[in-house]
């Protein structure tokens, strides 16, 4: 009896920790642009040109593309409020964390830029 009770508590705790996949209606391709900005190296200011950004969101992972750099990474999500989800993942290049805000009503994503990059607004691409 003790073993069954222990098994039940372990099973219950593991089932609550496992994350459900993202709903299909939020999956798809989101596109946008990172605005141009200036990078201070300490001795001079360098102009960085604007770059295209795209995120292909799937149920358990995403394709993240900035310019010519591409990566496929798993992500986690949590609910911020009724209309917003927070997606987080680590970039494979330098293990720096990325944060995305998915707005349900407008079907758009805001990427929080890594300093000194500005934030980028991405909109969901329509299916043809």
Indicate the topology.
Elements (H helix, E strand, L loop, with lengths): L1 H16 L10 E7 L2 E4 L4 E4 L2 E7 L3 E6 L2 E6 L1 E6 L2 E7 L6 E7 L4 E5 L7 E5 L4
Antiparallel strand pairs: 1-4, 1-11, 2-3, 4-5, 5-6, 7-8, 8-9, 9-10, 10-11
Question: Which properties best describe this structure?
Answer:
two-stranded antiparallel ribbon, mainly beta, single chain, Lipocalin, globular
- What is the terminal-to-terminal distance? 58 Å
> What class do helices, strands and sheet pairing give?
mainly beta
Strand content: over 45%
Radius of gyration over C-alpha positions, nearest whole angstrom? 19 Å
CATH topology: Lipocalin
Neighbour order of strands in the largest sheet: 6-5-4-1-11-10-9-8-7
Largest sheet: 9 strands, antiparallel
Q: So, CATH architecture?
A: Beta Barrel
Shape descriptor: globular
> Whole-number average pLDDT?
84
Helical percent range? 10-25%
Q: How many strands in all?
A: 11
How many discrete structural domains?
Answer: 1
Helical region count?
1
> Would you list the SSEs in sequence order as H and E?
HEEEEEEEEEEE
By CATH reckoning, the class would read Mainly Beta
Regions with little confidence, pLDDT below 50 for 5+ residues: 4-8, 11-17
